[in-house]
Specification:
heterodimer, A: 239 residues, mainly alpha, 2 domains, globular, B: 154 residues, alpha+beta, Rossmann fold, two-stranded parallel ribbon, two-stranded antiparallel ribbon
C-alpha cells in the first residue's frame, strides 16, 4: 500500500548519467531505442548490448534493480518463445532477437528513470515541447497536467478505498451491479469536486498559464551536447 | 487558504509545492530557496521539505498549504474554513498560527468560519444568516441577543 504513494524509480547517486541534462537523456533514449529496433544481426546486438552495459555501469545502476524491472515481463518472454517454438520453429532466431530487444528497451528505460527525477523529467518534456507553442499549445499547462496527475494518483486510490469501505458498511456486497454504479458515481463526484477545488488553489497561487521561473531549473552544458554527439556516433557505428 | 488540505497541494514534493507560487511570480531561482526555508521554519515544518505530499497527515498538509501562501509575502490572507477538516489539536495549532500572523506578522486576516469562538480576536465580524448579512460591525458591538437571532447561540 505504501509503495503506491510514491512515483518513480530515481535513486540519488553521483554518476555521470545523473548529472546529464534530462532533455539529453530523453533524446538519448529515443536514439538508443530506435537503434535497438533497427539492429538485425546477433553480432551487432551483442556489441550494442555491451555498449548499454557500459552505460549501465556509468549510471551506477545495480543489476538487481534492472532485474526487478524485468521481472513482470518474464512471463511474456516465455510466452513469446513458446509461440515461436510451437508455430514457426525455423524463425526461432527472430523470436530470440525480439525478446533481446525487449530486454534492451527495458534496460534503456531503467537507466532513464533511475538517473532522473520525475520533476526533471517533467521540466524536460515541457522544454522539449516548446516548439508546439507555435500552434498555440501551452506547454506549461501540459507539464502542470502531468505533475498534477502524478500527484493525485495515490490520492485517488485512497478516495476509492474510503468510498468502498463506507459503501460496504452501508450497502453490503460491492459486487452487485447497482452498488458498483453507486460507487462509480460517488467516486466521480469526489473527483470533480476535488478538481474544482484544485483550480481554485491554482488561481490563489497566481497561476496564469505562463511559466516565469523554475525552482529546479535545467541547463544544457557543453558536456551534455558532447555526450549526445558521442552517443549518436557510437550508435551509427554499431548499426 | 481553503478547507480541504488535500486539494491545495499541487506538486508531489513538499518544497516544490511551496515553490509553486514563487514560480508563478517569476522570483529568481536563487532567492526561492531562502524564502522557502524561512517560511518552513516559521511554521515548524523544515523536516518535511523533501517528503512526498501523499505521506503527510491532514494537519501537516494544511501547514504545507499555508506555507505555499505565506511564501508569496501576501498583505492579507482569506481563510475559508481552514480548520473544518482537522482534529482539535490541529485546529488549535492553525488558529494559533493565524493569530500570530495577524498580530506579529502584520498580515491582514479574513477568516470564514462556523465556530463563533474563532472571532475572539477579530476587529470586525460579519454574520451571514440564510444568505443575508445579519450583522456587519465591530466585534465589540456583538452580543448574545444578535447571536441568538442569527441562530448562533452558544
Amino acid at each position: 500500500m505504501f509503495r503506491k504513494l510514491t512515483f518513480g524509480q530515481y535513486v540519488f547517486r553521483n554518476s555521470i548519467m545523473h548529472k546529464l541534462d534530462p532533455r539529453i537523456k530523453i533524446i538519448s533514449v529515443a536514439v538508443l531505442s530506435s537503434a535497438a529496433f533497427i539492429i538485425d544481426s546477433y553480432s551487432r546486438m551483442a556489441v550494442f548490448s555491451l555498449f548499454l552495459l557500459l552505460l549501465i555501469v556509468l549510471s551506477r545502476l545495480k543489476f538487481s534493480f534492472l532485474l526487478r524491472n524485468l521481472r513482470p515481463f518474464f512471463f511474456i518472454f516465455f510466452f513469446i518463445l513458446l509461440m515461436y517454438i510451437i508455430f514457426s520453429r525455423n524463425d526461432l532466431n527472430r523470436g530470440i532477437l525480439t525478446i533481446w530487444r525487449f530486454i534492451l528497451f527495458i534496460a534503456i528505460a531503467s537507466i532513464l528513470t533511475f538517473t532522473t527525477t520525475i520533476t526533471n523529467l517533467i521540466t524536460a518534456i515541457e522544454r522539449l515541447l516548446k516548439p508546439l507553442e507555435t500552434i498555440r499549445i501551452n506547454t506549461r499547462n501540459f507539464s502542470l497536467l502531468i505533475a498534477l496527475t502524478i500527484r493525485f494518483i495515490p490520492a485517488l486510490f485512497l478516495y476509492a478505498d474510503r468510498i468502498r469501505d463506507a459503501q460496504s458498511a452501508r450497502l453490503g456486497n460491492i459486487k452487485k451491479l447497482r452498488n458498483v454504479k453507486v460507487f462509480v458515481i460517488k467516486l466521480l463526484d469526489r473527483i470533480f469536486s476535488s478538481a474544482s477545488a484544485v483550480s481554485d488553489a491554482l488561481v490563489s497561487r497566481n497561476y496564469n498559464g505562463a511559466r516565469v521561473s523554475y525552482f529546479n531549473p535545467i541547463r544544457l552544458r557543453v558536456k551534455d551536447y558532447l555526450s549526445l554527439v558521442i552517443l549518436i556516433i557510437v550508435v551509427l557505428l554499431i548499426i | 487558504m481553503f478547507q480541504n488540505p488535500e486539494d491545495q497541494l499541487i506538486y508531489s514534493i513538499v518544497e516544490e509545492d511551496i515553490a509553486f507560487g514563487l514560480e508563478n511570480l517569476g522570483i529568481e531561482t536563487r532567492r526561492m530557496r531562502s524564502m522557502i526555508t524561512r517560511v518552513m521554519k516559521e511554521l515548524g515544518i523544515e523536516n518535511l521539505a523533501k517528503k512526498n505530499v501523499n505521506m503527510l497527515s491532514l494537519g501537516q498538509k494544511q501547514l504545507v498549504a499555508l506555507a505555499g501562501i505565506l511564501v508569496m509575502s501576501p498583505e492579507y490572507i482569506v481563510f475559508d474554513e481552514p480548520t473544518t477538516m482537522l482534529d482539535s489539536k490541529n485546529k488549535k495549532n492553525i488558529m494559533e498560527i493565524i493569530r500570530k500572523l495577524n498580530k506579529k506578522g502584520k498580515i491582514g486576516v479574513i477568516l470564514i468560519t462556523n465556530i463563533i469562538e474563532d472571532t475572539k480576536d477579530s476587529e470586525k465580524v460579519i454574520i451571514l444568516n440564510k444568505g443575508k448579512i445579519a450583522f456587519d460591525d465591530k466585534k465589540s458591538k456583538l452580543n448574545k441577543h444578535i447571536l441568538r437571532k442569527a441562530g448562533l447561540d452558544v
